[in-house]
Amino acid sequence: MTQKLSDKPIAIAADHRGVDCKERLKGWLIANGYVVKDCGTNSAAERVDAMDYALRAVAEIKASRSDIAVAICGSGQMMAMTANRFPFIRATLVHTEQECVWAREHGDANVLVLGADVIDAATGEQILASFLRHAPRGDRYADRRERLAKLDISKL
Fold this sequence. Notes:
Helices cover 44% and strands 13% of the residues. It has 6 helices and 5 strands. The radius of gyration is 15 Å and the shape is globular. It has a single domain (10-155), classed as 3-Layer(aba) Sandwich (Ribose 5-phosphate Isomerase B, Chain: A). The chain is an alpha/beta fold. Helix 1 crosses helix 5 and helix 4 (97-107) packs parallel to helix 5 (121-133). It has helices at residues 19-31, 50-62, 77-83, 97-107, 121-133, 139-150; strands spanning 10-14, 36-38, 69-73, 91-93, 111-115. It has a 5-stranded parallel sheet with strand order 2-1-3-5-4, with helices on both faces.
C-alpha cells in the first residue's frame, strides 16, 4: 500500500451500470487499508439516475467527511458533469493511468470518475491505485489550480 493522501473515508458511488465495478473497487480499497463510505447504489437490477449518486459522493466531500471520492456509471459522463457543477469539486473522467496521473498532479482532482462500460475492472483498479498514489505537484501547476479555484462563472 502507498502512503495515504487522507485518513478520511473514500466516498464511492455508482448507478446501476456501475455497481459491479464499485463493488470490486470497494473491495480493493478495503484490502489496501482504506476506509470506504459506500454512497450506493447497491443493485444493478433496478435502473437509477447516476446524478443522484454523484450528489451523494459530492455531499461527503462538502461535509468534509471525505477528501476523495470515486464515482462510476456506464460512461462516466453523467457522474463527471454532475460533480463538476460544484466549485469545490474537481472531478476527472479518465480511461488510462496516464490521464489519471495528469489529473492528480496537474489539476489536484478530488473525484475519480470511471465509465464501467468503457474500461474493465482490472483497469479500474490500476487507475484507482494511480489516483491514490499521486499528489498535486507544485510549480506552474499550483498557479493553474489557484486560477481554477478563483474562476467565477457569474462574471462570464
